[in-house]
Write a structure and sequence with these properties.
globular; 11 strands; binds ligand LSKO443Y; binds flavin-adenine dinucleotide
Length: 663
């Protein structure tokens, strides 16, 4: 029997000003792609082999086992069903895994990409097939217990022995033990080990090495290898993040991944075109995290928006029926800016991936000139998108009141599985400082008359003249982009001036950098926010957009920019670029935009096209039948298997009886 849709949600859908399908097509790159997405999702979601008890009801060990089994099934089925393109695999795996990963995820996301990106053709012949077939399962072992951020400071050593033409691998101190690599704890039999290369006593920096850590026969750690799971974490329960220490483990010379740098049999070292090419896998994943953050935020906003239309609470007017909580403007102010941000990062994520694809193809042809821009852009956008997604997902949870705290909402798991994106692949302040470093260099080049290109082109010849007194239309996307550009350019310029002044005051470069670092991260943030606002606005100039959806998407873009502007109003006011009256106007526009977006809110989240199986949230159900399913879900909780829990007999009964006896 098909359940009836909640009448409030039904009405919301009937009253929308546009057909969500049109936005879905825009978001996923066309009708054909949406069709394929739905086919693959339905294949995965209706496959009985993937069904299991709710992970939230399981111990961590059970979760690991369940997700490993599912991951294995998934890669086997994808092979059988010939689901091969990256896009198809993403559609299928998102439906199988929901908001979780599986213990071999780092194999797919980092181990394989490192082989593609860092191995020679000969090495690919040797390893790729094995890795693609899952004959070997690997992870990316870089971080150590003592150092994650400071990659140059890693202590794991790979010392070349020309006599045997082998590398001797060691983690010489406690702090050198590898710590965190996903899937290393129990699953992987191989790692790409990032280690300091030593030849004849001289250090050549960090390089990648293929290392077998477990037997292919019985999965036991190989001699010299100590490996295990690092224990429970904030989330990511299904993942066996691991530790690893190495004691004089020898590997053949051919196991150093030598696409860019080489060690010859006699120990001669051949330098790479850039030492930073060894960091390529991190850049790829950072670029992917922008979209990943947009999607996670979109899921959270979908859940909270639908639920806010189903949930009725309090009285807005005495004696009137309880309103849908989304009718409270404060609730709209909680959710709509993040709805807009989800769209912003979704679209920017697509742009970031296309910049990545173009740049990496140039790099593989030997043109490394694009590397600094790619690094700076992906670092800043990764940091901004993941931190904004964190804040937004939490705001969505809070917007669901008490039920948001329950795992039934899907929000706690979504959050704890997504939040590593802020720390992993480069902690967000650290990455912002990388972007700032590029901004400082670029800005100084522009001061010397160089013309800049790419994301920093606006720093060339920027006019920092405040334009107070001018009347502005604060809804005009061009004017909003100008405001964000001006703010970024000013803050970049001021951070550069501060850095200079610290140095003129006697500090060396490093101390001056540290003293200026709050302003530097602010500069990187302003630059990244400008890029997002500009990208969002540019995507709306797509001639394929029909007017009904262009109107609503423009409102979202305006809201995204205006909300950023109002929450950072000091930045825009500081040099008089905007006036108090502009900010007041912006606030009024936000209220008006929210009122206009209110009737379209459900259609806008429906357009993300997450089926219930992927949202995995009772509060976010498409049909809105929340309460009945909350109750059913709670009844399935292991604590409810019996009316009287065994602990009653063990502890509670004697305690009650003892108390009664004392009366
Ligand atoms: C295939 C995947 C596709 C999509 C994936 C999609 C979604 C992913 C979904 C979820 C992911 C979420 C969570 C992930 C969960 C698990 C996996 C996690 C894995 C990991 O965490 S792996 C470990 C990651 N570790 C780090 O990121 C360490 C961070 N530190 C660094 O990167 C660097 O050391 C640092 C801090 C950037 C630089 O330090 P330092 O200042 O000491 O610099 P250097 O001396 O080393 O460099 C000087 C020079 O080089 C420039 N530079 C630095 N890095 C790069 C680079 N990567 N590329 C280019 N250039 C670089 C630097 O700016 C300096 O330049 P300059 O001298 O100024 O010109
Ligand atoms: C869920 C998860 C999965 C992971 N998976 C992997 C994996 O598969 N493989 C792997 O190798 N690693 C993995 N990691 C490790 C991850 O990459 C690192 O934790 C991350 O890069 C941050 O480094 P850190 O832990 O050393 O943080 P730290 O650098 O110790 O950060 C601590 C604080 O110091 C500050 N700080 C550090 N350096 C600077 C600086 N230069 N300037 C200003 N402030 C600074 C930071 O901002 C932060 O506030 C994973 C981590 C997590 C949480």
């Amino acid at each position: 029997m098909v359940a009836k849709m909640n009448p409030d949600l039904k009405k919301e859908r009937e009253n929308a000003s546009f057909d969500p399908e049109k936005i879905t097509n825009f978001l996923y790159g066309g009708q054909e792609s949406v069709k394929r997405k739905r086919e693959l999702e339905s294949l995965a979601l209706n496959d009985p082999d993937y069904q299991h008890e709710d992970l939230n009801f399981m111990s961590r060990e059970q979760q690991y086992e369940t997700q490993l089994k599912k991951g294995i099934l998934m890669v086997t089925k994808m092979k059988e069903l010939k689901i091969t393109s990256a896009q198809d695999q993403l559609f299928y795996t998102s439906a199988v895994l929901v908001s979780d990963v599986h213990p071999m995820s780092v194999h797919t996301r980092m181990f394989l990409p490192t082989l593609y990106g860092q191995a020679t053709e000969q090495q690919k012949d040797k390893w790729l097939k094995l890795a693609e077939n899952y004959t070997i399962i690997g992870t990316y072992a870089q971080t150590e217990i003592g150092h994650g951020t400071f990659v140059r400071g890693l202590e794991t050593t790979a010392t070349y022995d020309p006599k045997t033409q082998e590398f001797i691998l060691n983690t010489p101190t406690l702090s050198a033990s590898k710590w965190w690599p996903g899937g290393m704890g129990k699953t992987s039999n191989y790692v790409v080990l990032m280690a300091q290369l030593y030849i004849y006593g001289k250090s050549y920096g960090i390089h990648p090495f293929m290392l077998q850590i477990r037997s292919l026969e019985d999965h036991k750690p190989l001699p010299g290898v100590t490996v295990g799971d690092i224990g429970p974490k904030f989330g990511y329960d299904v993942m066996d993040n691991g530790f690893l220490s190495l004691n004089n483990v020898r590997i053949p010379r051919e196991n150093m991944l030598m696409k860019y740098s080489r060690v010859e049999p006699d120990g001669t070292y051949v330098r790479p075109p850039s030492t930073k090419l060894a960091y390529g896998t991190m850049v790829q994943v950072r670029a992917g995290i922008v979209m990943f953050s947009g999607m996670n935020l979109a899921k959270a906003v979908t859940i909270a928006t639908r639920y806010s239309c189903v949930r009725r609470q309090s009285e807005m007017k005495p004696g009137h029926p309880e309103p849908q909580v989304l009718d409270y403007v404060t609730q709209q102010y909680k959710l709509f800016p993040y709805l807009a941000a989800a769209y912003a990062f979704w679209l920017t994520g697509q742009t970031m991936m296309s910049v990545y694809t173009t740049s990496s193809s140039q790099i593989s042809k030997g043109d490394i000139s694009v590397l600094p821009e790619l690094h700076a852009l992906s670092a800043g956008l990764k940091a901004l998108s993941s931190s904004m997604a964190n804040v937004g997902m939490e705001e969505c949870r809070l917007a669901c009141g008490g039920h948001g705290y329950s795992h039934a909402s899907g929000l706690p798991r979504l959050y704890t599985n997504a939040t590593p994106a802020s720390t992993a692949e480069g902690e967000h302040v650290v990455l912002m400082l990388q972007t700032a470093r590029y901004l400082m260099k670029s800005y100084n080049q522009s001061l010397q008359g160089e013309k800049l290109a790419g994301s920093v082109a606006y720093l060339s010849g920027v006019q920092l003249v405040p334009a107070a007194g001018r009347t502005r239309n604060m809804l005009d996307l061009g004017a909003l982009c100008d405001a964000f550009r001006h703010r970024a350019a000013r803050i970049v310029g001021e951070a550069a001036a501060q850095l200079r002044s610290e140095m003129q005051g006697g500090k060396d470069q490093a101390d001056a950098w540290n003293a200026s670092s709050v302003d530097l991260t602010k500069a990187a943030m302003a630059h990244s926010q400008y890029f997002v606002v500009k990208t969002f606005a540019e995507r709306l100039t797509d001639s394929r957009l029909d007017s009904s959806i262009s109107a609503v998407l423009t409102r979202l873009c305006q809201l995204h920019a205006l909300h950023g502007l109002v929450t950072n109003s000091g930045d825009f006011l500081e040099d008089g670029y905007l006036t108090g009256s502009d900010i007041r106007q912006a606030r009024r526009h936000i209220n008006a935009l929210m009122a206009k977006l209110r009737p379209d809110a459900v259609a806008l989240v429906d357009a993300f096209d997450f089926p219930d199986g992927i949202l995995n949230s009772i509060l976010g159900r498409y049909d809105g039948n929340v309460y009945q399913h909350l109750l059913e879900w709670a009844k399935a909780s292991p604590l409810n298997k019996t009316d009287v829990h065994q602990s009653y007999h063990k502890y509670l009964k004697p305690f009650l009886e003892a108390n009664r006896a004392k009366l």
